[in-house]
Amino acid sequence: MGPKPLGINEMPWLKIFRSVSLALAILALVGTIVGVLIAGKPAAGGFLTGLTLVYLSFAVGIMVVIPAEKKSMKAAAAALAAMYPFKIMVFTGLLVFAPIPQDFRNGWLLTGAILALTAQLVIETKIISKQRILYFDSVG
Predict the structure, then answer these.
(1) pLDDT value at position 8?
(2) pTM of the predicted model as reported, rounded to 2 decimal places
(3) Which residues of 56-92 are buried (b: 16+ CB within 10 A; e: fewer)?
(4) Mind listing the pLDDT tens digit for each residue in 41-96?
């Protein structure tokens, strides 16, 4: 029969948050070690910086969607959609204006960001695709 359909206030946001946080912590540790071994501190710092920017963006989205979902799934979807342009502007600004050491602005920063984003999206997709989701906010 499978899992029961999710209704209002039942999306697994905390499970997603915990799963992504754990995966990115492991990825940060492994990527930092590999970076140091291959190219030294600038590689490790760049990798960790890229991963951290993606994680902060993810965490902000989760912190916005949880209270919005208490109102309705429609409000949660609207909150997530509204956050995308905001996050793009803020995190682009951080990349341009934040005092990130010049040594860290390298290919490893991009690698950390791409791997973190890929891990985040795979985990979110895997968790959400296993849910039975109602298409309307209310039954009846």
Answers:
(1) 46
(2) 0.81
(3) ebbeebbebbbebbeeebebbeebeeebeeebeeebe
(4) 999 999 999 999 999 999 999 998 888 888 887 888 888 889 889 888 988 888 88
- Mean pLDDT, the chain, whole residue set: 86
Name the amino acid, one letter, at 126.
Answer: K
Q: Which residue's structure tokens are 């990798």?
A: 47
**In angstroms, rounded to a whole number, what is the distance separating the alpha carbons of residues 107 and 136?**
44
R_g (Cα) of the chain, nearest Å: 18
Six-digit token pair at 43?
């590689």
Q: At what angle do helices 13-39 and 41-69 cross, to 10 degrees?
A: 170
Which tokens belong to 123? 């985990």
Give the pLDDT confidence of 80-93 residue by residue, as tens digits: 889 889 888 988 88
User: Across the strands, what pairs with 6?
Assistant: 133
Closest CA to 11 of 131, 101, 93: 131
CA 138 – CA 140 distance, rounded (Å): 7
Contacts with 87 (C-beta within 8 Å, 6 or more apart), sequence order:
57, 60, 61
